[in-house]
Design goal:
The protein is of the alpha+beta class and 103 residues long. Helix content is 17%, strand content 17%. The chain is built from three helices and five strands. A hairpin with a 3-residue loop joins strand 4 and strand 5.
Amino acid sequence: MSECQRCGACCAWFRVDFSVYETQDGGGQVPDGLTVPVTGTTVRMRGTDHWPPRCTALAGRVGEQVACGIYEWRPSPCREFAEGSDACQRARARHGLPPVSPA
C-alpha cells in the first residue's frame, strides 16, 4: 500500500477547484454530481466547498487507509498533487501525520 493510500490528508484539507471542461457535462470525465459551481468556468469538488473540507469521493479514514472513488476520473488538481510536496506536508501536519519523503 502506498503512503497516499494510507494518508488522504490532501483530500481532507484543500479546496479542489478546476475547469468545468473536466466535468462530464463539459466533455471531461469528472462526474457532474460530485461538483458544485464556483463561477461560469470553474467548479469545485463537492465536500471541499465547506469547512472542514473533505472530498466526497474520499473513502476511508485519513492517516489509516483511504481510497478515491473516482481515481481514474479525478480532476487535474488531484492528478498534479505530488506526494511529499510542500502542500502534502502541510496537509499531513494539519492531520497530525509525520512528514514523508518526496516520491
